[in-house]
Amino acid sequence: MSCALSLEAGHTFSHATEGDPTHKHNGENVLAWHFITDKGHHYMVEADGRAIMYDGATRNPVAEIDAP
Question: Which one of 17, 19, 33, 57 is most buried, by most CB atoms within 10 A?
Fold first, then answer.
């Protein structure tokens, strides 16, 4: 999923770094996957049938796609 989000954002995926099961998203603990692209650190979460990519530094959304 991180590769697909990176492609959607126009980034080149490099590698995954870790999963964080304690990440808070909309007040709930969710699994966030952290990864590196050619534009730095990002993370993704799945919520409401969507996969959302966030910038690791600003926490701003970068891309969103349907989650299978």
Answer: 33
